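To illustrate the input format used throughout this study, we show a single complete record. The first block contains the structure-token representation of the backbone; no residue identities are included at this stage. The design step must infer an amino acid for every position from geometry alone.
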């Protein structure tokens, strides 16, 4: 798969987080993998590790998004 430049780094981070959240929602944490995220967003698995330290970092960012949404609801 060729290198893509159609997304900014921030857009790419959001794509990764959206795909990871969808995977976790459908299959739980056990179903989360860099390969599955990459397949869903059309990038190579290495791209995930260029944007995040590891899969735990991806999960931590998803959890932060959930907590931010909860904070907004409670505010």
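Output of the design step:
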């Amino acid at each position: 798969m060729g290198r893509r430049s159609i997304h900014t780094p921030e857009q790419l981070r959001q794509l990764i987080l959206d795909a990871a959240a969808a995977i976790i929602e459908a299959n739980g944490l056990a179903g989360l993998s860099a390969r599955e995220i990459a397949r869903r967003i059309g990038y190579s698995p290495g791209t995930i590790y260029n944007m995040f330290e590891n899969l735990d970092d991806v999960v931590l960012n998803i959890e932060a998004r959930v907590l931010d949404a909860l904070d907004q609801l409670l505010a």
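Structural context for interpreting the output: The first helix runs from residue 9 to 27. The mean pLDDT is 94.
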